C-alpha cells in the first residue's frame, strides 16, 4: 500500500482558510487534516463544525477531522453533519470510546482513535477490531511546528504487529513533526498516512514538499 499524505491546515493562514484548502486541492495529497481544538483538552481554540462545513465547498478531498476536545461525544454528530470523511478523537478524552467508534461508523464516516505520545498502544488494544484507523501523535497535541518524538515509533511497531498477527485492516496515521527524515522512519515502522503541517504549508512549493515526504 502506498503512503498517503495529509497536509494540516493548522499551518495555514487562518484569515483565509478557504484559499488554503483550495491550494491543497491543487496537489496530489489524498487527505486534508483538520485540527479541532477546544481550549480545554489543549490550550488553543481553532475552529468548529461550521468552519468545516464552509470549507467543504473548496475541496473534494477526504476531510480528516482530528478532534482535540474534552467531550468528543458532543461534537461528533456536528462534524458528521459538516461533511467530515474521517473523524478521530483522543482515547484520553473519552469515557466510552467503543460506543463512539460505532456511532461514527454507523453514519458512514471512517472512525479513528488518537493516542498521545505518553499513552501506551495497549490502551487501544481492545478497540482495534472497531477502528478504521489509529492516529499516533508524535508531538504533544495543541501546536504545530514541534519536534518529532521518536519513542512513539514503538507504539506504531506494536500496532503494526497486532494488525498483522490478527489480520486486521486498520490504517496507522502519524501526526506531528513529520518531515523528510522522520517520514522515512514512520514508513519503516508501518505508518500508512503522514500528517504534515509545517513540512508542507511552511514551504513555497507544496507539491514538491509532498513528493519529498512520499520519498
Ligand atoms: O494535531 C496537530 C497538533 O496538535 C497537528 O496536526 C499539527 O498540525 C502538525 O503540525 P506539524 O508538526 O506537522 O507542523
Ligand atoms: Fe492533528
UniProtKB/TrEMBL annotation:
<keyword id="KW-0862">Zinc</keyword>
<feature type="active site" description="Proton donor">
    <location>
        <position position="175"/>
    </location>
</feature>
<dbReference type="InterPro" id="IPR013785">
    <property type="entry name" value="Aldolase_TIM"/>
</dbReference>
<dbReference type="GO" id="GO:0004750">
    <property type="term" value="F:D-ribulose-phosphate 3-epimerase activity"/>
</dbReference>
<feature type="binding site">
    <location>
        <position position="8"/>
    </location>
    <ligand>
        <name>substrate</name>
    </ligand>
</feature>
<feature type="binding site">
    <location>
        <position position="66"/>
    </location>
    <ligand>
        <name>a divalent metal cation</name>
    </ligand>
</feature>
<feature type="active site" description="Proton acceptor">
    <location>
        <position position="35"/>
    </location>
</feature>
<protein>
    <recommendedName>
        <fullName>Ribulose-phosphate 3-epimerase</fullName>
        <ecNumber>5.1.3.1</ecNumber>
    </recommendedName>
</protein>
<keyword id="KW-0413">Isomerase</keyword>
<dbReference type="Pfam" id="PF00834">
    <property type="entry name" value="Ribul_P_3_epim"/>
</dbReference>
<dbReference type="InterPro" id="IPR011060">
    <property type="entry name" value="RibuloseP-bd_barrel"/>
</dbReference>
<dbReference type="GO" id="GO:0005737">
    <property type="term" value="C:cytoplasm"/>
</dbReference>
<feature type="binding site">
    <location>
        <begin position="175"/>
        <end position="177"/>
    </location>
    <ligand>
        <name>substrate</name>
    </ligand>
</feature>
<feature type="binding site">
    <location>
        <position position="33"/>
    </location>
    <ligand>
        <name>a divalent metal cation</name>
    </ligand>
</feature>
<dbReference type="InterPro" id="IPR000056">
    <property type="entry name" value="Ribul_P_3_epim-like"/>
</dbReference>
<keyword id="KW-0479">Metal-binding</keyword>
<comment type="pathway">
    <text>Carbohydrate degradation.</text>
</comment>
<comment type="similarity">
    <text>Belongs to the ribulose-phosphate 3-epimerase family.</text>
</comment>
<feature type="binding site">
    <location>
        <position position="177"/>
    </location>
    <ligand>
        <name>substrate</name>
    </ligand>
</feature>
<keyword id="KW-0464">Manganese</keyword>
<dbReference type="GO" id="GO:0019323">
    <property type="term" value="P:pentose catabolic process"/>
</dbReference>
<keyword id="KW-0170">Cobalt</keyword>
<feature type="binding site">
    <location>
        <begin position="197"/>
        <end position="198"/>
    </location>
    <ligand>
        <name>substrate</name>
    </ligand>
</feature>
<dbReference type="InterPro" id="IPR026019">
    <property type="entry name" value="Ribul_P_3_epim"/>
</dbReference>
<feature type="binding site">
    <location>
        <position position="66"/>
    </location>
    <ligand>
        <name>substrate</name>
    </ligand>
</feature>
<feature type="binding site">
    <location>
        <position position="35"/>
    </location>
    <ligand>
        <name>a divalent metal cation</name>
    </ligand>
</feature>
<dbReference type="GO" id="GO:0006098">
    <property type="term" value="P:pentose-phosphate shunt"/>
</dbReference>
<feature type="binding site">
    <location>
        <position position="175"/>
    </location>
    <ligand>
        <name>a divalent metal cation</name>
    </ligand>
</feature>
<comment type="function">
    <text>Catalyzes the reversible epimerization of D-ribulose 5-phosphate to D-xylulose 5-phosphate.</text>
</comment>
<keyword id="KW-0119">Carbohydrate metabolism</keyword>
<feature type="binding site">
    <location>
        <begin position="142"/>
        <end position="145"/>
    </location>
    <ligand>
        <name>substrate</name>
    </ligand>
</feature>
<dbReference type="GO" id="GO:0046872">
    <property type="term" value="F:metal ion binding"/>
</dbReference>
Amino acid at each position: 500500500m502506498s503512503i498517503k499524505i495529509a497536509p494540516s491546515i493548522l499551518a495555514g493562514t487562518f484569515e483565509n482558510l478557504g484559499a488554503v484548502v483550495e491550494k491543497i486541492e491543487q496537489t496530489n495529497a489524498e487527505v486534508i487534516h483538520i485540527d479541532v481544538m477546544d481550549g480545554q483538552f489543549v490550550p488553543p481554540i481553532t475552529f468548529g463544525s461550521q468552519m468545516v462545513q464552509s470549507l467543504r465547498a473548496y475541496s473534494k478531498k477526504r476531510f480528516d477531522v482530528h478532534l482535540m476536545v474534552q467531550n468528543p461525544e458532543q461534537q461528533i454528530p456536528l462534524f458528521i453533519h459538516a461533511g467530515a470523511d474521517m473523524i478521530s478523537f483522543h482515547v484520553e478524552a473519552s469515557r466510552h470510546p467503543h460506543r463512539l467508534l460505532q456511532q461514527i461508523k454507523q453514519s458512514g464516516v471512517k472512525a479513528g482513535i488518537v493516542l498521545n505520545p505518553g499513552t501506551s498502544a495497549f490502551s487501544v488494544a481492545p478497540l482495534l477490531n472497531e477502528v478504521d484507523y489509529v492516529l499516533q501523535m508524535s508531538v504533544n497535541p495543541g501546536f504545530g511546528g514541534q519536534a518529532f518524538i521518536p519513542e512513539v515509533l514503538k507504539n506504531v511497531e506494536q500496532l503494526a504487529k497486532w494488525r498483522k498477527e490478527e489480520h486486521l485492516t486498520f490504517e496507522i496515521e502519524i501526526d506531528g513533526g513529520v518531515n523528510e527524515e522522520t517520514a522515512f522512519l514512520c514508513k519503516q515502522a508501518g505508518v500508512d498516512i503522514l500528517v504534515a503541517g509545517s513540512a508542507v504549508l511552511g514551504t513555497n512549493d507544496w507539491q514538491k514538499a509532498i513528493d519529498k515526504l512520499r520519498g
